[in-house]
Design a protein that fits this description.
By secondary structure, this protein is of the alpha/beta class. It has 7 helices and 10 strands. The chain is about 35% helix and about 25% strand.
Length: about 230
């Protein structure tokens, strides 16, 4: 049986639609609560697929959140073995940093729904399913990253040109959130209320756009992930 491990940083930023896709395949999904777990006994090569989830902290803030040190070491070991790995938001930033790229505050926060701009490589990849003509993407981040050496850029936005990339044989990373389930975003609106207020983001506007765009992203996101998971051949 295929085993998936997800590194989770806050409870409401979970694997989203991936939970159902894994269940349909008969795969098991276990969450590791990254801020409080004991990293010593964990084997980074054990899962058939590792998913590194999002969270509201910076990938460079190990001075404030010391658990990031063993988490980065865990991810580095995984990448060194070129084992299947998926990063989402903070997860993508941690992967970028583990690969030696800089992670830093972006020019502005991107919170809400906007389409991705795909590169030629993105159009030729499973990301074509979330191209602008098919779905708007959900974004929630203030940081961004340089493209790691050896990575292939798949998509960007005007604010953050590096939104999605592949690296090695089986690593895929998204700064955006193709995994979200629309009804779960109410948890985000509560959990990130202070950040929204500071950024002058309207929860009513986010909720309206979620009603408008959420279903299409769930459908197209499932197509994206299923194609990528099929290609892993695990």
């Amino acid at each position: 049986m295929v085993k998936v491990t997800a590194l989770r940083h806050v409870a409401f930023e979970d694997a989203g639609i991936l939970e159902g896709l894994f269940a349909q395949r008969g795969w098991t999904l276990d969450y590791v609560e990254a801020p409080v777990t004991d990293w010593k006994p964990l084997d980074p090569l054990a899962p058939d697929l590792l998913v590194v989830l999002g969270g509201p902290i910076g990938a460079y803030e190990e001075h404030l959140y010391p658990f990031l040190n063993p988490e980065l070491a865990f991810i580095k070991a995984r990448l060194a073995a070129d084992r299947p790995t998926l990063g989402l938001c903070l997860g993508a930033q941690l992967i970028a940093r583990a690969l030696g790229a800089a992670v830093y505050p972006g020019p502005e926060k991107e919170i809400g729904w906007k389409p991705l701009m795909l590169t030629a490589a993105g159009v030729a990849s499973p990301l074509r399913h979330v191209a602008a003509e098919h779905a708007f993407m959900f974004h929630w981040h203030g940081d961004t990253f340089d493209l790691p050496e050896g990575a292939t850029l798949l998509a960007g936005t005007e604010v953050c040109p590096h939104q999605a990339f592949t690296w090695g044989k089986a690593t895929l990373a998204f700064q955006c959130h193709p995994e979200v389930r629309a009804h779960d975003l109410e948890k985000w609106f509560v959990g990130h209320a202070v950040e929204m207020g500071a950024a002058h983001v309207s929860v009513r506007h986010l909720r309206d756009d979620t009603r408008r765009y959420g279903a299409a992203l769930e459908h197209q996101g499932a197509r994206l992930f299923n194609e990528w998971l099929d290609a892993l051949k695990i």
